[in-house]
Amino acid sequence: MTERPSKGSPGRHSVAELVQGVLEGKRLLLARAITQVENETPQAQELLRTLFPHTGQAHIVGVTGAPGTGKSTLVSALTRRYREAGLRVAVVAVDPTSPFTGGALLGDRVRMVRHSGDPGVFIRSMATRGALGGLTKTTSDVITVLDAAGFQRILVETVGVGQAEVDIASTAHTTVVVEAPGLGDEVQAIKAGILEIADLFVVNKADRPGAARTVTALEMMLQLGRGAPRTVLHHGQLMRVERPDGPVQGEAGGESPDWEVQVLKSIATTGSGVEELREAIERHRAWLLASGEMEAREQARVARMLEGILQAELKRRMLAALPQESMGQLIQAVSQRRLDPYSAAQEMLQQLVK
Amino acid sequence: MTERPSKGSPGRHSVAELVQGVLEGKRLLLARAITQVENETPQAQELLRTLFPHTGQAHIVGVTGAPGTGKSTLVSALTRRYREAGLRVAVVAVDPTSPFTGGALLGDRVRMVRHSGDPGVFIRSMATRGALGGLTKTTSDVITVLDAAGFQRILVETVGVGQAEVDIASTAHTTVVVEAPGLGDEVQAIKAGILEIADLFVVNKADRPGAARTVTALEMMLQLGRGAPRTVLHHGQLMRVERPDGPVQGEAGGESPDWEVQVLKSIATTGSGVEELREAIERHRAWLLASGEMEAREQARVARMLEGILQAELKRRMLAALPQESMGQLIQAVSQRRLDPYSAAQEMLQQLVK
To answer: Do B331 and A239 touch (CB under 8 A)?
Structure first.
């Protein structure tokens, strides 16, 4: 059975039916609820409002990295390990680089083969919604639905190395950055940005030449990064969420010592190192809970979620307040340099804001 | 002389002085104006308003691609060719993966060596501003300043393969997508998204094994893509800008036939193929002007610019309207599941919107 219902039967289910279905973990209704959320139907908001109080149980694991690192295979292998450990797992694959929903669909089917018939696994690819903020928001909404549906681990796989993917991953509880040997020189530079968000590094394809060098390079960068001030650059763009008091980087001792970012090795295709990765994620979760950091990350996640909702809502209201025609006229005036964009924006805001 | 003034002397110049300096192409004042824009100082908006009517002359070339493709070297080689052709060139390197301004600075210095002392070249790296939308907006503002300063070609180099980088590149007049042989299997999948925005492909590092295969793969994908409907997915998120009537994909004949996306080869380190790339960019520019597509792209660029300004302004007003304290309380209520994020957003909006 496919996870994605045909588009031919929208709205066949009431919000109450969908909510009940999600909470009972009924796959078809779950898939339909997610579709509603993805398509931002009129019911979606009520659905999310009703499901939200049932969330907060899932541990969200972001898995990010450059193309070619073998993330998808690793996520699949990790899913299997989690199933063996008796946990229900959902996978959300965020692929903003493919505007072809068809591609995402195909990807789901290929992935599903391995876990097909297992009711404890649910896999969903997010097609791009065009807007990037939109993708972050939709991903967070889909996570809400899966959390309410009782999936205990939600793996969010993001392709690419851009800020957006980093953002999505950084709203996870645990962020795993996947590297692979021999992906070119620039990878070194990228790590600078990624150091800030990684809770764990995995050098996948560890049987390839250069793996040891990649591990060493990462460990050296981590060594260099220690003691440097930690920023909350990727958390709470709109509102800055301070971390609760606690031990800071470089300060030893105390009941919950700092998390030490580790560099693991894996060969996802053979499964080698995957159980160790799973165990490291679980250790990180235990540390988050013990240190109070979990609460800080939840607040950052919420701040990000609110920001996404606000942006979407403001956009909607803007479009409602400004007729397409007058918007087109403003654009034309600016593109002909008869008006500057700042004055045009001011005009548009006057229609909307107090 | 460094392009980036010390932070010790902010506001030493009035807006009028900066405007005059930019319009006269004075490097120090230009660099300071850009710093104002990057830091979103109170003077920045007035500066941009005043400079905007002087823009519209530059041709903006987006150069994007995955890490390891050798984009930076290619951009540098391309800059040299443009100088030989007698044009003034500005380079904006957008690097959202590095939150270390130091890194960007170092990058600038390394790049500058090649073009140092040439007043016809200006290079600027954009450090991440944290917010992604912010980066797109700031980049577009920096382009405004450089355009007003009389640079005839502005090369915007974006690292990464994420949607954000694609977005920045897609607001260019001409988008060049750089590939390289042997960057892993996933690259194929990424091309699906990138097909939509590429005006030109360059397979760089063409002396490496697999280059011919990469070229063939790209050409096959282009072949497959022909005849498919073109979306304006990456243009004008907020407001959809329609293209002017004109020949559509697959329709032959007419005064200005369709642009055929080409796949070029280059070895940036030796300069091989770089002049051919420059010529192809110029052919594309000529086509844009002849076909009326330039106007459509300008409108899309303006729409994107307006969207960025509006989002930044709404954020600013939101922060002004909602005291930090009440925002923190809302976040806490949501993260403790006492309130759902949609209701919280509604409360916040009531402070702001008509």
So the answer is: yes
- Interface A-B, measured as beta-carbon pairs within 8 A, has a size of 270
The two structure tokens encoding residue A107: 């990807």
Task: Identify the CA nearest to A22 among candidates A1, A40, A39, A46.
Answer: A46
Q: Which three-class secondary structure state does DSSP give residue A196?
A: coil
Measure the CA–CA gap between B221 and B150, rounded to whole angstroms: 38
Q: Cα torsion at A6, A10, A11, A16 (round to 10°)?
A: 30
Distance from CA of A92 to the nearest CA of B (A): 17
Residues spanned by CATH 3.40.50.300 within chain A?
55-239+254-297
| B5-49 per-position pLDDT tens digit | 444 455 579 999 999 999 998 999 999 999 999 888 889 999 999
d(CA B203, nearest CA chain A) in Å: 15
Hey, what CATH class is B55-241+255-293 in? Answer: alpha beta
Alpha-carbon gap: B256 to the closest alpha carbon of chain A (Å)? 22
Contact B342 A49 (CB under 8 A): yes
**Of residues A64, A104, A59, the one with CA closest to residue A204:** A64
Which of B96, B163, B345 has its CB closest to that of A135?
B163
**Could you give the angle at which helices A15-23 and A132-148 cross, rounded to 10 degrees?**
60
Contact B121, B133 (CB under 8 A): no
ipTM, 2 decimals? 0.76
Counting every residue written for chain B, the total comes to 354
Q: Is B340 on the interface with A (CB under 8 A)?
A: yes
Compute the nearest-CA separation of B330 from chain A (Å): 9
The fold adopted by the segment(s) A55-239+254-297 is: Rossmann fold (3.40.50)
Query: In a 3-state reduction of DSSP, which class is residue A254?
Result: coil
CB contact under 8 A, B68 and A299: no
Q: List Cβ<8 Å contacts ≥24 apart for B110-116.
A: B111/B72, B111/B76, B112/B3, B114/B76, B114/B80, B115/B76, B115/B79, B115/B80, B115/B83
Instruction: Report the residue from B132, B184, B233 with minimal CB separation from A130.
Output: B233
The kind and range of the H/E element at A27 are helix A27-38
* Delimiting residues of CATH 3.40.50.300 domain(s) in chain B: 55-241+255-293
Highest mean pLDDT among A283-292, B167-176, B249-258, B302-311: A283-292
Answer yes or no: are the C-beta atoms of B41 and B34 closer than 8 Å: no
Q: Which two tokens stand for residue A127?
A: 């097609």
Q: Considering only CB atoms, which chain B residues are within 8 Å of A96?
A: 162-163, 193
CB within 8 Å: B99 and A193: yes
Q: What angle do CA A13, A16, A21 make, to 5 degrees?
A: 75
Specify whether the CB–CB gap between B277 and B200 falls below 8 A.
Answer: yes
Cα–Cα distance for residue pair B302/B238, rounded to 1 Å: 11
Give the closest-approach CA distance of B286 to chain A in angstroms: 19
Cα separation, A186 vs B68, in Å, equals 5
Closest C-alpha among B162, B308, B338 to residue A167: B162
pTM as predicted: 0.71
**pLDDT tens-digit series, residues B191-204:** 555 667 789 999 99
CB distance A342–B45 less than 8 Å? yes
* Pairwise CA distance, residues A23 & A34, whole Å: 13
Residues of A in contact with B132 (CB under 8 A): 132-133, 163-164, 167
Interface test with B, best of A100, A106, A159, A302 (most B CBs within 10 A): A302
Spell out which residues of chain B touch residue A184, defining contact as CB-CB under 8 Å.
Answer: 67-69, 180, 183
